[in-house]
Specification:
- The termini are close together.
- This protein has 245 residues and is an all-alpha fold.
- It contains 13 helices and no strands.
Length: 245
């Protein structure tokens, strides 16, 4: 057992960001196709693909969010940077125009990832793991805002351990819809796709609004005041959950 200084808000935001990532309009329609292709190549193909996505998102997120700690930046500088990014990505999630602009900026990276995916031909699960790694890059124009939001949340943690936990939560949540598409029949998935799309749309707006609110709280320092008050109201069992892993 070791202590991790995390709040339920951080973990909850990371999980919501992960779900919204693969329920986005440019990813959701592809999920049954990608899942079926991976499963068709090998019984463990879907597992390899999902593992690749988890590793890709987690490694990128931890590397970026922990860079400030490794460079020796002050806690105040890290918090202000994270708060600013929360405001930026919150605005992107709430604005279709900003989302389109972000997509144009990252289109080159997405094309590079898709090109790498197309070169993998073998059916071995390890190859599907590689596909998962590259899919994290290929989806960057669409998942960038939610991935960036998760990284901003991870950057508010006390260190690399916390950042890893938050990004792992994000990554695991991101592959839940993919796994669901793989295990469900195509008919069942298509029947529920509109419902999932609506959930993703609502989740995107909820997350955008929450990020704007939290970003403002972080930049003004009011989040610490709110956190201190909540700690005085929380029961002992909840405090234990949020301080120990």
């Amino acid at each position: 057992m070791f202590a991790i200084e995390l709040s339920l808000a951080q973990v909850g935001l990371a999980f919501l960001a992960g779900i919204v990532t693969t329920l986005s309009p440019c990813v959701l329609p592809l999920l049954p196709i990608i899942a079926a292709a991976a499963t068709g190549r090998h019984p463990l193909g879907l597992l390899g693909l999902a593992a690749g996505l988890v590793v890709a998102f987690t490694v990128v997120g931890v590397t970026v969010s922990a860079s400030g700690h490794l460079l020796g930046l002050s806690e105040l500088a890290l918090r202000n940077t994270a708060g600013a990014f929360m405001l930026i990505f919150g605005a992107v999630l709430l604005s279709s125009r900003l989302q389109a602009g972000f997509t144009r900026l990252t289109a080159g990276l997405g094309n590079a990832g898709q090109s790498g995916v197309s070169r993998i031909q073998t059916d071995h699960p390890a190859a599907q793991f590689g596909v998962g790694l590259l899919m994290g890059v290929a989806w960057s124009p669409c998942v960038g805002p939610t991935l960036g939001a998760a990284i901003a949340v991870a950057s508010t943690g006390a260190g690399i351990t916390e950042a890893t936990f938050i990004m792992a939560t994000f990554s695991l949540a991101a592959v839940v819809p993919l796994a669901s598409a793989g295990f469900a029949s195509r008919t069942v998935f298509m029947r529920n796709r509109e419902r999932m799309a609506r959930a993703g749309h609502i989740g995107r707006f909820v997350m955008g609004g929450v990020l704007l609110a939290i970003g403002l709280l972080v930049l003004t320092g009011l989040d610490k005041t709110l956190e201190a008050w909540l700690l005085t109201q929380a029961p002992d069992w909840l405090l234990d959950i949020t301080t120990r892993f």
